[in-house]
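Bench log, entry 3. Co-assembly request; chain sequences pasted below exactly as received.
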Amino acid sequence: SAVISQKPSRDICQRGTSLTIQCQVDSQVTMMFWYRQQPGQSLTLIATANQGSEATYESGFVIDKFPISRPNLTFSTLTVSNMSPEDSSIYLCSVAEGVGNTIYFGEGSWLTVV
Amino acid sequence: SQQGEEDPQALSIQEGENATMNCSYKTSINNLQWYRQNSGRGLVHLILIRSNEREKHSGRLRVTLDTSKKSSSLLITASRAADTASYFCATAVFGNEKLTFGTGTRLTIIP
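Structure output for the full assembly:
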């Protein structure tokens, strides 16, 4: 199974600032995704990180707010821009090793915006 | 919007008892995956069950899938204090690996 490392694991951020979360996988994977989990809620997909091209965003999420990079098959970043307290969430990176296979998650990045 | 609903939302049982959680979804799926999340942490994958399967086992875990009713259940036998966590089902449709999550069940095992 893929081993996924996320950084930072936790951070407290000032309102109006931006933070970039890194996701590193120990093997090449075909698909990478970013999810958000607001306090006490379930997970919601933000976007699919596409290698070498622009990410595909879900309804309600836009590139200006959540820019994503994926320069290769093992690494991706998610930036949360111009943060507000409503952005306080756990952000999780996930990977799929192929169609119809297990999808693995990282440990998550817990952001608190003050 | 969330596709899946989980029932119950919260469950407390004595250590050693069995715990059953149910998940319902709305559309045809390729597979359904169950995850565990300890407080504030990432998701641990438990079991994947495909649409052409009806039951799968892994250690103390048993998952069933009824595609005609669009529902799945997760049974944890002989529960332990370490099983205390939130449990989520997540579905993927054919040709798409994006997961749609259920609302989750918060399981508490009382020692």
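The interface with chain B takes residues 1, 4, 6, 31, 33, 42-45, 48, 58, 90, 92, 94, 96, 99-108, 110 of chain A (CB under 8 Å). The domain at 4-113 of chain A is CATH 2.60.40.10 (Immunoglobulin-like).
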